Amino acid sequence: MVVSNPPDTVEEGKFDGQVVVITGASKGIGKATASAFAAAGAKVVLAARTRETLEQVAAELRENGAEALAVPTDVTDVDAVQRLIQKTLDAYQRVDILVNNAGVGYFGPIVDFAPDDWDMVLNSNLKAVYLCAKHALPPMLAQGGGQIINVLSIAAKVAFEASAAYCAAKAGALALTKVLASEVRQQNIRVTAVLPGSVHTPFWDGVPEPPDFEQMLKPEHVAGSIISICGQPSGMVTEETVVMPPLGIL
What we know:
Layout lengths: L1 E2 L15 E5 L4 H12 L3 E6 L2 H13 L3 E6 L5 H15 L4 E4 L14 H29 L2 E6 L12 H21 L4 E8 L22 H12 L9 E4 L7
Parallel strand pairs: 1-8, 2-3, 2-5, 3-4, 5-6, 6-7, 7-8
């Protein structure tokens, strides 16, 4: 396990010509990651459910000279994910990096947790990771390599009360990441799980008693870790990294 110290700056041109697909890209970690990759020269494909917000992020990146494609996508829907990858290939003919960042949090004690809410949390945080990886892999295999980053949570390893569905989904996604890494490492595809602690993002909107925002990570901290991992030499791989606030788990 590696605890990341992300870089403060991104090397300009580091990812020139590379195509990066980022889910949950309309806000928070996804938006920060898209900005970081764009600043380093990548062509970014932005996926999220809300078209208006997604188009706004893409427009901001284009204004700064980046190539950005917005593809509204429900990552729990197999047809939508297939369309996302196909639109990426139509535009850029390859997929170099997939950042599985989309996810939702819904909390409550198990005895009160509705089955529909359970399915929603598992679909968004686990099934979506499987679907996006499954459909991004064929072009990566065809081109001879690639990178998949699954942005999970420290909840994959630490149990929090009233978080059964969320913890179960993240733990399942961590197991999925490890299996996927073992399946494709011989094909020059690197797979990494990034486990952040609490991050100050819209994830906390509506939570009655959120942690102290001043003590949280910023989205840019996690984005910096992702950029650092993807920029590592081809002869190495970081399979798991934990990114925590200075004071630890919140």
